[in-house]
Every structure is written in structure tokens, then in C-alpha cells.
Specification:
The chain is an alpha+beta fold. It has helices spanning about 1-15, 30-35, 115-120, 175-185, and strands spanning about 20-25, 50-55, 65-70, 75-80, 85-90, 100-110, 140-145, 150-155, 165-170, 175, 190-195. The longest helix is centred in the first third of the chain and has 16 residues, at about 1-15. InterPro entries: LD-transpeptidase (IPR050979), LD_TPept_cat_dom (IPR005490), Transpep_catalytic_dom (IPR038063). Keywords: Acyltransferase, Cell shape, Cell wall biogenesis/degradation, Glycosyltransferase, Hydrolase, Peptidoglycan synthesis, Signal, Transferase.
């Protein structure tokens, strides 16, 4: 019943908002991206969390800013001409949620994963991993800094795309890999990020 209600809500939302949304094509992929993405399980398409180009900017932010709405589990990249690219995300669960402002100071393709000591203490099975299809960081990572210091929070891809739309991470903002590649291509280092 829960799946039916979620599907009905998603279809109703998509129908009501259809005039405001435009789907966008996937970004061009390198041969390595295509090969590695093919090894990551696919999740069902979900219109609530699919990537859309919105024709109205309701974030209150100027072009070039990323806004993450943790309650709605949506990330918005503000474009010129009052448009916004919207992406579905997974966010931190209540114990690990993070809000605030930061700047993207570093970007990486298929990044290595170095979990913080606190995470390794909580989950002894967690270990450092090289970048690739099995890595929880996914295809791209955008590293968030405040006042020149690494927050240890990231906007990154995932090897669990079925969890987009949930509160499941240790505070990082997870995106479908194809979406984080799209955002990575749009947002340069120095981009301001507002997480609320």
C-alpha cells in the first residue's frame, strides 16, 4: 500500500507541475564513466527525484549558487534567466544531518573514499577505498569548505541509487551518478552552497 501511495503522489505531483518542468538529456560520458556506471545497479525512475529544468527560480539565490533543501530532499543549481536545475538527493539522517553555508573548494572524478575516524569507529566494516563502481562516493565529488577548512561533507554520487529521496547518509548529499556528473560539469570550484 505504501508503494502505491508513493507512486500515486509522484504521478499527481508530476501532472500538476508538468507545465513548469522540462526534462534534460544526460551529460556526455567518457568511456570510463560509461563502463563504470554500467556496473552500478539501476534504481527505478522516480518523477519526484528526477533531474528537471525548472522555469522559475524560487530559491531566492542568484545564478551560480547551489541550494539543498534537506526536508524536500532536493538540490537546486540556480541558472541564468530565472531558471533552476533540480536534482533529487539523499541526505543525512537526523543524527548526522548538516546545514549551513559552504564553498566548493575541490572537485574529483571517481574519488577515493577516506571515511573519517568517527565513521570508522561507528561502523568497523568501513574502510578506505579507491575510486570505482563499488566506492560509495560514486562518479564525482564536490568537497565543501567553510572559511578555508574542509567540513568533511561532500556532494557526491552513490553506489546505492535506490536510496535517493531518503535520509540515510552520514551528512553528505548523495546524488544519482548521472546527476552528480551533470552538476559537476556545471558548478565550478568556488560555487557557494546553501544547505537548509
Amino acid at each position: 500500500m505504501r508503494t502505491f501511495l508513493r507512486a500515486a503522489l509522484a504521478l499527481a505531483s508530476a501532472a500538476v507541475l508538468a507545465g513548469c518542468y522540462t526534462t534534460t538529456p544526460d551529460p556526455q560520458l567518457s568511456p570510463r564513466d560509461a563502463e563504470w556506471l554500467a556496473q552500478i545497479p539501476k534504481a527505478e525512475d522516480d518523477p519526484v527525484y528526477a533531474r528537471y529544468l525548472l522555469s522559475t527560480n524560487e530559491t531566492g539565490e542568484p545564478p551560480g549558487v547551489i541550494v539543498v533543501d534537506t526536508k524536500a530532499r532536493q538540490l537546486f543549481y540556480v541558472l541564468p534567466d530565472n531558471r533552476v536545475m533540480r536534482y533529487g538527493v539523499a541526505v543525512g539522517d537526523e543524527a548526522f544531518g548538516w546545514t549551513g553555508e559552504a564553498v566548493i573548494q575541490r572537485k574529483a572524478e571517481w574519488p577515493d573514499w577516506h571515511p573519517p575516524a568517527e565513521m570508522k569507529a561507528r561502523w568497523p566494516h568501513v574502510r578506505d577505498m579507491k575510486g570505482g563502481p563499488a566506492n560509495p562516493m560514486g562518479a564525482r565529488a564536490l568537497y565543501l569548505y567553510q572559511n578555508g577548512r574542509d567540513t568533511l561533507y561532500r556532494i557526491h554520487g552513490t553506489n546505492e541509487p535506490e536510496k535517493i529521496g531518503r535520509s540515510v547518509s552520514s551528512g553528505c548529499i548523495r546524488m544519482r551518478n548521472i546527476d552528480v556528473i551533470d552538476l559537476y560539469n556545471r558548478a565550478p570550484a568556488g560555487t557557494r552552497v546553501v544547505v537548509k
